[in-house]
């Protein structure tokens, strides 16, 4: 399954399965076609209309929080934490994503992460979040895509605690290397989880 997950930097993943799913497209270098685009929140490095347009087809469906809606001419599904939907045969759970000890991503905004099932695997994309209590309730996660850079999201140390709560089969660090954070954060995360959870550090695709 890992060969089907392409990290394009920051929070942007291309996941290839029954459908082509993109998460938070940002700094897309070449046009492509997405079946489903998952948007976690409205900040420019997660909700970038110019980048989204590079992936749109007449059939692309964008799943997004309410404050992102109506800004792009496309098929939209507006979601909030707690929602469960099926899009083009893909099961998607919408989960909370927020800060607990900083002000950038307030819980009351209703911004989100997603757990979606593709190729028989449950993948969690966290969005911009701190280590939050809801993570203990996420079940049967095969692959967790977790921010590790601190400043706007949880630190690598906090991400280690999140991974231990979520218990994925594989954890992949993200949200470093472009705006904040460095590969050192990813390596720290991997080192601290050694013997507990398999960590795969992906190289950004060109």
UniProtKB/TrEMBL annotation:
Superkingdom, taxonomy of origin: Bacteria
Pfam families, per the entry: Lactamase_B_3
SUPFAM superfamilies on file: Metallo-hydrolase/oxidoreductase (SSF56281)
Protein name: L-ascorbate metabolism protein UlaG, beta-lactamase superfamily
Source species of the chain: Thermodesulfovibrio aggregans
């Amino acid at each position: 399954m890992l060969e089907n997950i392409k990290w394009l930097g920051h929070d942007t993943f291309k996941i290839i399965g029954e459908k082509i799913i993109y998460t938070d497209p940002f700094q897309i270098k070449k046009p492509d076609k997405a079946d489903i685009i998952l948007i976690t929140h409205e900040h420019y490095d997660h909700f970038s209309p110019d980048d989204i347009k590079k992936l749109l087809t007449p059939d692309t469906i964008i799943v997004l929080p309410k404050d992102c809606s109506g800004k792009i001419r496309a098929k939209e599904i507006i979601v909030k934490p707690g929602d469960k939907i099926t899009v083009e045969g893909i099961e998607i759970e919408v989960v909370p994503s927020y800060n607990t000890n900083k002000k950038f991503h307030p819980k009351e905004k209703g911004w989100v992460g997603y757990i979606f099932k593709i190729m028989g695997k449950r993948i969690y994309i966290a969005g911009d979040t701190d280590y939050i209590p809801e993570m203990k309730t996420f079940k049967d996660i095969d692959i967790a895509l977790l921010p590790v850079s601190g400043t706007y999201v949880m630190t690598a140390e906090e991400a280690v605690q999140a991974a231990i709560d979520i218990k994925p089969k594989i954890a992949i660090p993200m949200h470093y290397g472009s705006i904040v954070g460095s590969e050192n954060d990813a390596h720290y995360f991997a080192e601290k989880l050694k013997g507990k959870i398999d960590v795969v550090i992906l190289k950004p695709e060109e």
